[in-house]
Amino acid sequence: MLKLMKYEFRKQAFSKLVILSLVGLLELVFFFGVITSKEKFIASSMSLLAVFTFGALFFLAFESIITYSNDLKQKCSYMLFLTPNTSYSIVGAKVLSAGIQIVLAGLAFFAVFAIDGAVLIAKYNALAEVKDMIMEALDQFFKLKIEFSDVASVTAAVIAQWISTITLAFFSITLSTTFLANKKFKGIVSFALFIGLNILYSYIVDLTLGDVTNFTDRLTLYFSLQTLYMIIFTIITYVGTAWMLDKKVSV
Questions:
Q1: Angle at which helices 186-209 and 148-177 pack, to 10 degrees?
Q2: For residue range 73-116, what is the model confidence (pLDDT) as tens digits?
Q3: Between residues 241 and 154, which one has the greater pLDDT?
Q4: The pTM is what?
Q5: What is the pLDDT of residues 65-81, one digit of tens each?
Q6: Distance of alpha carbon 133 from alpha carbon 229, whole angstroms
Q7: Domain residues of the chain, as ranges?
Q8: Closest CA to 56 of 162, 153, 151
Q9: pLDDT at 238
Q10: Tens of pLDDT along 172-225?
Q11: Half-sphere exposure in the Cβ direction for 138 (13 Å, CA)
Q12: Which of 30, 62, 189, 214 could form a disulfide with 45 if both were Cys (CB 3.0 to 4.6 A apart)?
């Protein structure tokens, strides 16, 4: 599976270089603004970086889905399924590589924002005072105490949500190109299935867990349970995808 993951990373390496280059450009603008004390450059670079971060993370997940779709449709990519690897290994490698890329990208962007924030606080002491005022206001008026366990559980839930969305997309695409290959409106049917299963998942979570406000003092428990649900959902769609490939594609 490691070789398959390495193959996936290589296929998507160019987009990572583009993202890295754009982040580097924004950082040059940011540090130019810091050095020259030009707040417009600082504000513009930070705003663009925030928007770019969301777009880049979304693109990474979307790129994994498009790559998988091309592997099933293009003859040159289809050869992957003729290698001596099981469908579970192939799909697993794609899911793991997509998840690793999202996690690493998230950590990289977090590090960039942390460094930029530290630079700004070091240069402008007033920012440190503003940060303390905000945290104190949250603690006094809203009684919100941010715990590490809460942050960790929310982060895990977000990552699990991304991965479950990717595996669901794999499932829908595989259904469209295997059992629905000769059917009319196969694309519409698979997309409707993608939306429908997302709605069903949300309904199950809401029905069993209820609203997050019911876990005001137990946020870690709520997001941990939500992560567990998404892991189960991911396993189901992963197994379903591999099973369809076994039935309809020679691997």
A1: 150
A2: 765 545 565 566 778 888 888 888 888 888 888 889 889 988 88
A3: 241
A4: 0.75
A5: 888 887 777 655 455 65
A6: 37
A7: 1-121, 146-251
A8: 162
A9: 92
A10: 888 887 777 677 777 788 888 888 888 888 888 888 877 766 666 677 787 888
A11: 9
A12: 30
Whether the predicted pLDDT of 25 surpasses 90: yes
Here the tokens at position 79 are 């050869």
Degrees, nearest 5: CA angle 212-215-219: 90
Token match 């091309």: residue?
Answer: 70
Measured CA distances, 166 to 155, 199, 237 (Å): 17, 15, 10
Lowest mean pLDDT among 56-60, 105-109, 140-144: 140-144
Please state the three-class secondary structure of the chain as a single string.
CHHHHHHHHHHCHHHHHHHHHHHHHHHHHHHHHHHHCCHHHHHHHHHHHHHHHHHHHHHHHHHHHHHHHHHHHCHHHHHHHHCCCCHHHHHHHHHHHHHHHHHHHHHHHHHHHHHHHHHHHHHCHHHHHHHHHHHHHHHHHCCCCCCHHHHHHHHHHHHHHHHHHHHHHHHHHHHHHCCCCCCCCHHHHHHHHHHHHHHHHHHHHHHHHCCHHHHCCCHHHHHHHHHHHHHHHHHHHHHHHHHHHHHHCCC
* pLDDT confidence of residue 87: 81
Q: What angle do CA 92, 96, 102 make, to 5 degrees?
A: 150
Assigned token pair, 191: 């997309």
Tokens of 143: 């009684």
